């Protein structure tokens, strides 16, 4: 393997220091009694440095040379000491790997042979020896060793490093039929082949045909049960092609497996996954509950989960907030990753923790999904290697422990790990877990077959977690949401039961992943928190959610891609389901934790904008400006009109409006040049390829420009520019009939935008006391044939005619309509007649005060609008409220008035 080949598989280069995990955790994966001065600790430390500089980060030749020198020095110190075989194997792997990378043409053997590293006498977990063996094959390109190993079993989804090597190797195998290991062949066909729904069902039906429910003394030792469970784990983790056409077959199969196995975790997860993918959410939830129960039972007996990554993954698929939170925290604890707390959510820019967590790609991807937790590296510790002692290499202390925790074993009972071929139940669950976590091709054509299979598995196993998850996933993908929810409920129940017995979940990552798929907010929250706790990831607290710019924790969590993606999806689901009007801290909390994870460019840009947008809503204009300039526009200045528009709006809160006006003019001038070039020979803006949102944002830019001109020079000057508004609309909308409807909302139509244009014109005429022209604009709107009439037309009529009934009508539809509330309050407060002290008038004032107070408590736009709060203050004065209450409200009002912008930031979004 050449350096170019190795580098082509790596993640983008990140300019960070050599962030290495605390080797103590890595060592605990091999032997829990290791201390920092031990030979094994030093060996594992070097081994992780190798992974960090080859797989986790981009290839670093100079560091690899240093690692080889340290490994050679340590290897020479071993000599003929007893009990050093494991250290010797690891160090040979390190030295040999570096030699191959530096000299790709040389035929170098990393270890004595493939069987040596697979030897149990190494004194460590089988998962760890699997890693060593796969690494050997990967770098020496000896595929036949893996192809000929009939006893090879698939690593746990948590073992991100092993899966990285395994997947890279499998992609090089030309014919999967040549693979001797049935489990590996099935894994390759599921993940990299084109195995169809019917083929999966038929395979499992043949597998379970002659098996029976295990006796009590052979639950963990029945060879057939172990084999079935291994296949089920593969289906649970990797299969996603459930189809409605095979639902009956799947149900029969699941039932059959349930009746023939005892609390099989994977079949419950598969059932939850199946029904979730097929849209039968209730069934999916039921099986997911069972999946959680079985994982909890497993935890009670084994003191840890079978595979928390699989649990989180399934919880993500079902979008189960509670289980996502639980298992997400567990994964973060287990991998010792720091999650940004809610109280630090808005400090990520200041702490500069972007992309700071380095862990295997699969785990990283699972961790970043719904909650969008921002995870950071702990930077309060260092490890140094000087001769025989650590001391010369400084590293962030906890985060990259994910490399070790990625290799935690699915099932940890020694009898299961040593005699995997003797336990059919374990094998069945492993296969179901693979389907649950990785299979997504369920089809309606096979829905009956899937249902029969799920039913079969359910009848042959007791509360199988994976089959419940698969069923939930199946019905969710096929749109049977009620069934999906039922199976997901069982999936969670089974996982919780498993936890009761084993004191940990079978696989919290699978649970979170399935909860994501079903968008189950409660379970997502639960297992997300668990994963963060287990992997020791730092979560940003709610109270710090708006401080991420200060803490600068962007991109600080480095974990395997699959886990990273699950966590991202979890945070995103939680963010989309949070109500910004009820608690904006929840939004900052989710966004801050999203930005700690590893995001692709478009996702990062989207949620960085969301963060800045939320800051503008709560009048943190200076922070929003800094965020836009430092995090967004510096890196993405082009084709980003939405961010430029938001920047111009927040800049308009300043006393000097010139910056805001300059931005508006700079964006609008190229369009005017377009008008001056009728042949469009040198178009500065490719209007034909503008999205609907971008066209809309240009119109809003024009609104902003006109309003700033009005404030700076008066309404007469802005009226002179009114024609250019309609010309801009014609340029962007009327002349381009191919503008497509891209959203179900009626706001995503050019007719809706035209209503806004006429409303802007009406407002400007009103400010210039041209009443008839203002009413004429409203008549133009009335003559339009549209499905949706903007309520602000009534508001404008109320302002022009000073008609309070218009505002009352609007508030009847929308009690938090800011324009109506201000308009109605202004009319009431400005009444000057003999009746203004009457009981009726006082009641009107009290009613108005209640309307505004209710709106302020239930709508963030109203809460931070200075003019509305000033009207409320004047109402309090007229009603004779206490001086302390008036003073408190006045202080709040002044602060909001000082930060009021020319346009409300809400206008940026078409919502």
From TrEMBL:
Q: Does the keyword Secreted apply?
A: no
Q: Kindly state a single biological-process term from the GO annotations of this entry.
A: endocytosis
Q: Would you name any one GO CC term?
A: plasma membrane
Keywords, A to Z, come to: Endocytosis
**Which spans of this chain does the record mark as coiled coil?**
none
Q: Membrane topology per the record?
A: Peripheral membrane protein
Q: Where in the cell is it found?
A: Cell membrane; Cytoplasmic granule
> Span of the secretion signal?
none
InterPro entries found in the cross-reference section: Endocytosis_PI4K-reg_protein, TPR-like_helical_dom_sf
Q: Which family does it belong to?
A: Belongs to the YPP1 family.
Role this protein plays = Involved in endocytosis.
According to UniProt, the name of this protein is Cargo-transport protein YPP1
What species was this sequence derived from?
A: Hanseniaspora valbyensis NRRL Y-1626
Lineage runs:
Eukaryota, Fungi, Dikarya, Ascomycota, Saccharomycotina
């Amino acid at each position: 393997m050449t350096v170019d080949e190795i580098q082509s598989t790596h993640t983008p280069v990140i300019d960070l220091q050599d962030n290495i995990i605390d080797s103590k955790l890595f060592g605990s994966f091999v032997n829990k009694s290791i201390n920092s001065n031990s030979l094994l600790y030093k060996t594992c430390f070097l081994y992780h440095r190798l992974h960090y500089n080859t797989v986790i980060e981009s290839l670093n030749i100079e560091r690899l040379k240093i690692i080889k020198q340290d490994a050679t020095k340590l290897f020479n110190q071993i000599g003929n000491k007893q009990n050093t075989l494991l250290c010797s194997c690891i160090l040979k792997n390190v030295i040999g790997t570096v030699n191959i990378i530096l000299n790709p043409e040389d035929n170098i053997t990393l270890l004595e042979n493939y069987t040596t590293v697979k030897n149990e006498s190494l004194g460590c977990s089988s998962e760890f020896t699997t890693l060593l063996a796969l690494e050997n094959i990967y770098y020496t390109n000896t595929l036949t060793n893996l192809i000929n190993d009939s006893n090879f079993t698939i690593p746990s989804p948590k073992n991100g490093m092993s899966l990285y090597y395994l997947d890279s190797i499998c992609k090089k195998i030309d014919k999967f039929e040549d693979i001797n290991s049935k489990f590996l062949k099935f894994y390759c066909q599921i993940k990299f082949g084109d195995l169809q729904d019917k083929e999966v069902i038929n395979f499992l039906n043949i597998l379970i045909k002659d098996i029976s429910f295990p006796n009590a003394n052979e639950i963990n030792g029945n060879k057939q049960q172990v084999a079935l469970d291994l296949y089920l784990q593969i289906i649970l983790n990797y299969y996603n092609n459930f189809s409605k056409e095979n639902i009956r077959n799947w149900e029969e199969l699941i039932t059959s497996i349930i009746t023939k196995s005892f609390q099989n975790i994977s079949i419950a997860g598969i059932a939850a996954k199946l029904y979730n993918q097929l849209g039968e959410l209730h069934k999916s939830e039921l099986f997911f509950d069972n999946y959680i129960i079985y994982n909890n039972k497993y935890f009670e007996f084994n003191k840890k989960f079978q595979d928390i990554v699989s649990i989180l993954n399934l919880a993500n698929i079902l979008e189960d907030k509670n289980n996502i939170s639980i298992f997400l925290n567990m994964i973060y604890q287990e991998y010792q990753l720091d999650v940004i707390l809610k109280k630090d959510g808005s400090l990520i820019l200041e702490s500069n923790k972007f992309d700071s967590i380095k862990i295997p790609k699969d785990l990283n991807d699972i961790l970043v999904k719904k909650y969008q937790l921002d995870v950071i590296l702990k930077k309060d510790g260092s490890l140094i290697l000087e001769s025989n002692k650590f001391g010369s290499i400084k590293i962030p202390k906890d985060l990259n422990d994910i490399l070790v925790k990625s290799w935690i074993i699915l099932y940890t009972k020694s009898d299961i790990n040593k005699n995997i071929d003797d336990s059919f139940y374990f094998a069945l669950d492993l296969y179901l877990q693979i389907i649950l976590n990785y299979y997504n091709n369920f089809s309606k054509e096979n829905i009956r077959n899937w249902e029969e299979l799920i039913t079969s598995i359910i009848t042959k196993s007791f509360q199988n977690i994976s089959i419940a998850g698969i069923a939930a996933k199946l019905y969710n993908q096929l749109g049977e949401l009620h069934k999906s929810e039922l199976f997901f409920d069982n999936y969670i129940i089974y996982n919780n039961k498993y936890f009761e017995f084993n004191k940990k979940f079978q696989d919290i990552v699978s649970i979170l992943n399935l909860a994501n798929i079903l968008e189950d907010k409660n379970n997502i929250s639960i297992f997300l928190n668990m994963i963060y706790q287990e992997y020791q990831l730092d979560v940003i607290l709610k109270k710090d959610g708006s401080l991420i710019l200060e803490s600068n924790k962007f991109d600080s969590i480095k974990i395997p891609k699959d886990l990273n993606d699950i966590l991202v999806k979890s945070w995103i689901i939680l963010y989309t389901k949070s109500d910004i009007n009820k608690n904006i801290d929840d939004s900052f909390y989710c966004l801050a934790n999203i930005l700690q994870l590893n995001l692709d460019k478009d996702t990062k840009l989207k949620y960085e904008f969301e963060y800045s947008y939320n800051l503008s809503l709560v009048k943190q204009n200076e922070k929003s400006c800094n965020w836009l300039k430092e995090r967004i526009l510096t890196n993405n200045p082009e084709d980003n009109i939405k961010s430029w528009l938001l920047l111009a709006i927040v800049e308009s809160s300043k006393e000097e409006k010139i910056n805001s006006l300059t931005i508006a003019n700079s964006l609008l001038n190229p369009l005017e040049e377009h008008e001056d070039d009728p042949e469009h020979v040198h178009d500065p803006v490719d209007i034909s390829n503008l999205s609907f949102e971008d066209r809309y944002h240009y119109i809003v830019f024009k609104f902003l420009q006109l309003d700033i001109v009005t404030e700076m020079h008066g309404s007469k000057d802005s009226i002179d520019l009114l024609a250019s508004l309609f010309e801009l609309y014609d340029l962007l909308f009327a002349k381009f009939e191919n503008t497509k409807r891209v959203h179900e909302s009626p706001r995503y139509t050019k007719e809706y935008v035209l209503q806004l244009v006429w409303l802007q014109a009406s407002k400007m005429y009103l400010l210039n006391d041209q009443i008839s022209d203002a009413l004429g604009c409203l008549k133009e709107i009335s003559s339009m044939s549209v499905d949706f009439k903007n309520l602000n037309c009534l508001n404008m009529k109320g302002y022009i005619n000073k008609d309070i009934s218009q505002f009352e009508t609007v508030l009847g539809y929308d009690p938090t309509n800011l324009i109506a509330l201000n308009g109605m309050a202004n009319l009431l407060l400005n009444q000057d007649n003999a009746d203004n002290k009457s009981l009726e008038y006082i009641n009107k004032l009290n009613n108005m005060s209640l309307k505004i107070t209710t709106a302020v408590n239930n709508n963030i736009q109203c809460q931070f609008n200075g003019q509305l709060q000033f009207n409320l203050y004047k109402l309090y004065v007229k009603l004779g409220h206490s001086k302390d209450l008036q003073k408190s409200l006045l202080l709040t009002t002044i602060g909001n008035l000082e930060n009021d912008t020319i346009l409300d930031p809400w206008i940026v979004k078409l919502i």
